[in-house]
Records
---
Amino acid sequence: MHNKKASALMVFVVAGALALAACSRAPSGTTSKAPVAPANAFRIRVTANAGLTPWIEQAVDKFNQSGTKLAAGKPVFVDVSIVEAGQAVSDMTDGTNLPALWIPDDAVWAAVLAKRGQTGYQANCVSVAQSPLVIAMWRPIAEALGWPGRALGWLDVGTLAADPSEWAYYSGGKYGAALRIGHTHPGLSGSGVSTLLAIVQAARSKTDPVTVADINDPIVQASVKAFEGAVASFSPSTDKMGETLYQRGSDFMGGGVEYESTLINNGGGGGDTDLVAIYPFEGTFMATHPACVNDGADAQTQEAAKLFRDYLLKSDVQQTAVSAGLRPATASAGVSLGAPFDTEHGVDPAQPKVVYGAPSVDTLLAVSNLWQSARKNVNLVMLIDISGSMRGAKIDSVRTAAMQFAQQMGDNDFLTLMTFSDKIRVLIDHKKVADARANAVAQINGIQASGNTSLYDAIGTAAGLLKKSNSAETSNVMVVLTDGQDTSSNQYSMNQKLIDTAAANNTTVFTIAYGEDADQDVLLKLASGGKGNFYAGNTANIASIYQEMSAAFGGSVGIGR
């Protein structure tokens, strides 16, 4: 385990972009490498949530090599896509993207899809693996909070977030001025919704499923708001949550809510600087990963889907699930829960002691609505390079992506919109998005490219605007897109002072190197210093980048807002 970690850290040192880049990942998920199917194969599509990665991809490869055939004699060939539950519901709502087999985190997602008119996944669901939701925390931070002698819970996180003096007392000032954690976007990911519901369960001291009335209780809502006060950003997927936390380290975030399997595959361990699984003492949810056959598909498609599901439940395949950090679907004969379910991998097979009952569609939707008001609002400055080198397809693509981004911001977020070439223009200055959305879209749509590049001065100006509008009620964010090197700044230079200026007032800095001529080294340093993300962008992926950033800030994506 420690060799794996050392290798990952070496990659971070040698290729710093890996630790920050998310450029090839779109929130809607990824597809496994292009398979080579026999000419006469009967191909089916399977959609699985990210909590099953990498087991499901390995299982698909082996299944495709097994020669499993339909009764009619054709070999079955599976194409798998990794898509989080909320995003999958959004993708499948219009009925044009329905896989033969869908494996979300929990069966409630099939009911959510049915509420949207697609009822084909409710009748035939069978769990293929399990994994509890945990708070992954860096061992030194967990120990500073009293773990393992002191049991920690969901509400403890909210208390520490709401009271900086208490955080300072326990942390000794070693881990930042405030507790920073992450979880997935509830509109995209089942683990994000489960995080919110777990806080409600803890606040109501209930193990049976909570009700909509419980969610509407003012004390419960205050508990959710307190917890969200510690959230630095939202990941588009569970595996992305784990990867980012592991790669960026304790300076980036103190912990994140993810599945136990994600922790095992991303830095969980027994060392002094590893991640450990906190199983909240109040209780937690267990992802059951039901494999649901599309009963609206033709008979052969259903037959093929069931053959693949049966394959996943074979003892040897279930044992490979255990090796990948997943608990078996049932106490199946021949499946042992040994390593990696041990302290050497940061987990405890005897936990969790309390598992919450599965939620209903109504509570899932109600807590997603609560999150809209409970999450910390964003105070965002968007900087767009409009120098002459941005002409043509570059500026066209940025316009489209940035307009969509503005459309997805929350009504109570604040937006400052700036463009820069040899001149810096503030098109919108700290306006509530509900009042400025239409103007923001119009302003972005009207930008034209010309002139040189005053990148450093634009960043310094943006930092000054954030300082003026800084508030404890909002999270400061700077998003910088540029396609070139600075050519005309006269107030600021690229040095530690600029990095510190950009990151002042607890500002998270996201940077986009748009095209090969952008100064990636500068943008990497700015993003790293501002505890944000760096993206290597181009006209093909710029929409994906803005979509992922929208998720990070709590934008309206998936089934969200």
Note: The chain has three domains: 30-128+288-319, 131-287+353-373, 377-552.
---
Amino acid sequence: MNLKTTLSALALSAALLGALPLAPGQARAEGGTISGGFDVGPGGFQGNFNPLAATSGFTWLVTYFEPLVIYDDKLTKVIGALADSYEVSADQKTYTFKLTEAKWHDGQPFTARDVRFTLDLARNDKAGSVFAARLGVVQSVEAPDDRTVVITLSAPSPSMLDTLTKVMMLPEHALAPIPPEQIAKHAWWSTTPIGTGPFKFTKYVADQYVELAANQDYHGGKPAADKLINRYFADPAAAIAALRSGEIQFTYVDSNDVSTFSGDSAFRVIEGDSYVVNYVGFNQEVPLWQDLRIRQAFMYAINRDAIIQSLYGGAAKPANCVYVADQLVPQGIESYGYDPEKAKQLLAEAGWDKINGDKPVTILTYYTSPLATNVLAAMQAMLAQVGINIVPRAVDTPTYNSIVYQQSGNSGDYPLIYAGLQNGPDASNINIGLNEKQIPPAGANIMRIRMAAVTEALDAALAETDDAKRDARYQDVCKATNAELPWATMWVANRYGVVSSKLKDFVWTPAPAGGPYQAHAEKWSIAE
């Protein structure tokens, strides 16, 4: 643990541990403080409390903001959150939501006007919304009464409900006075935000922690805990040390940390599919990657099976396209087995020596854990064997986002990236990183990929209204990404969290981008 983290822990320990301890084994029926490293994950502190612009951290944000609909904790179906119920018309172009009775944290009623305001803001790319392109099919949002919202689409969009699980509802009365172009980075998000969730925002100490207090008027019932505190750490090792010392009760861990907790009755290990495909991304505005043979060489040069076994402990599946789910991967695609000699041959045919040779090429990443460092070191050594010299550059998530989402400047700042993107539970999620229509500021196609075959396959899949045909459509996406290699797809790894056995009724799901999903934070309690 570094000095900054140690000093922070000492200064905060009294506040973080909550009320006076109880007798051994005595449960606390209600009250107390629950602390966790809720944002300590593959990308670390995501540094953005605006849910319309955030790319991760929803496990935490959903404790004080809420969407209309949300995934259940198994990520198998979409259920109501701020919507008591919803209906989809036969032509799949009209969505009608009946809203629950809820209040904002300042006591104002939550109404259909807030939903209309939020969706209009989310569709506005001037507001810095990452949902602008995904909601482009929305033709209108109507509020016929305070408890009813009608969303009309210009064309059917089977992925609409999945998108709406990520759009947190926002208060019109608080945000309407702020011009849309000033909202994305406004101080409101980290000083006085209000939501409808089970906990209220009370304090943010920069780069150290966020504190929430119980929302006594929560529509889902009075929370069992008095406070939630989200701690931020310089690295995952510091979070693990805080968990073991009792300073926090939950944190994300890498697969190579799991064995230190297994069999320890003081902790519970949670494991699940991350639904995130890790990849090496080729910036298509950099001439180095125009020849397909060079992109293919990356696939053949990296021994993915060896990395999975030696570094991930076998807890990952190699990805030969953007998917690994059996129903989405067709027979006959190229497996890109480890073949360094073939990689050398392809590079020679493409004239790599003249294009770049052994000049160093930066690979940018927001993955800063020891596991990620080792993975990149392994890739670096394997690529060096075939004549490609990559140099890893790891930065924090806010810095990473400021680089890759830049609208102008030198694209050579990030010729390569090592990153991950959600490819489930709905297969449509991958679209934002590959479709030409999603190039920033519209979406997250940060590699500026303009590949007709990939975009056409994605568009066809997104428009497929017949559930029986959707998997086949996404198999076409798999074929296109396997053949064109907009990314060198690596693997989909399992994700792990460790929770103290003192927490009761605690739900954490290894969800992509940190959720959101139904966690019922109002039920979480802590025993001393």
Note: The two ends are 25 Å apart (CA to CA).
